[in-house]
Amino acid sequence: MSRPSRIIIVGMGVRSMIYAREALEHPDLFQIVGVADVNPDRVKVARETFGIPEENCFSSVEALVAVPKFAEGVINGTMDQQHVPTSLPLLRHGYDILLEKPFAVNRQEAEQLIECEHETGRRVMVCHVLRYAPFYRRIKEIVARGEIGRVINIRMAEQVSYFHESVSYVRGKYASPEICGSGMLLSKSCHDIDIMTWLMGGNDPVSVSSIGSVFQFKPEMAPEGAGTHCLLDCPVERTCPYSAKRLYIEHPQRWTGNIWHDIGRENSTEEERVAMLSNPENPFSRCAYRCDLKIVDHQSLLVSFKDGATGTFSMNGGSTASGRHIHITGTMGEIFGIFEEERFTVYRIAPDVPGGRTAEVVDVSKAQQGNAHGGGDQAIIHDFVTLLQGGEPSPCCTALDDSMTGHRVVFLAEESRKKNGATFLI
To answer: Is the pTM value of this prediction over 0.70?
Structure first.
């Protein structure tokens, strides 16, 4: 295409803005030409940020598809349970979609979306952005070349920091399936299960079992004497690790902005934020142990693959720091690393050297530069534009049919958890 691709934002949230901002850096590649969101303030932000004409601003997907198609693609960053209901009319109206993960909240919806994609001939890319991170791309290349032989086992873990856990999953909008439409494994860790099945490269999973529960965030685990609201009635607030005042005002971390975004007060002062957290109706300063958490705070699963290989994954909420760990054992070697350390080690069997193995450290820090998703957020939107312009997307491309493999594992893992670890065939 000689002109930039035209893209519409549906759901003007934090994730959509991350992808859309690339248009400001690369206006020669794509432009944001429309927005649809139920919140008029977010529509205003999009309009002002990207120079969107008033006639291309909508309050709903229904209003958007009621006018003639005026772009090639859509970034769909709506909440999880809205992904399929909003994507179906967009596909039928002729739009290709970059769809935030998880692309569906249950198997029935997932199959409905896949069927619609096939019927319309449109394309959906799922935002499994970690595939694009150099850390996982290099591991994929090494495994695909057979450098560690055939994979026997992939062991993965996601440590969800106490800060992220409290913001998003205990006090936030992902605390209950009734609110967000899905459980913890789907909303947080479908990235990781997608990586596992992607690395296995066509060696399809055949069964899964899973266990998990709420271990920490329940009333009996609260500090002695704890109140119900951090800034109103808690005598131990100053020593509690989940004090809302300490976490969100005095010592804010990466996810703090999500709080003020969700409240609609992103530009508030510190004094205003203290006042907001002092409001008993504000969910973000409830006692973390008395939030009636409806999702698990830890979960583990076991996956078997068609050639007999296995995969294990554990999600642990409330850890000291965020971390994604991976250890792959092959017939001729191993790969071990932690994503946040931006390097991994490849061990190879070598009987003729001291210790019986060689070790090669692969450093991806220059490529990732401390980016939370290793630059995957930026890389995936460029791959989507390539798709829109008729080019060949990268090997990391998260096509809908391909993404369904990992999602299917997650759907069945949650069913297994509810049945005390029963094994489900895939």
So the answer is: yes
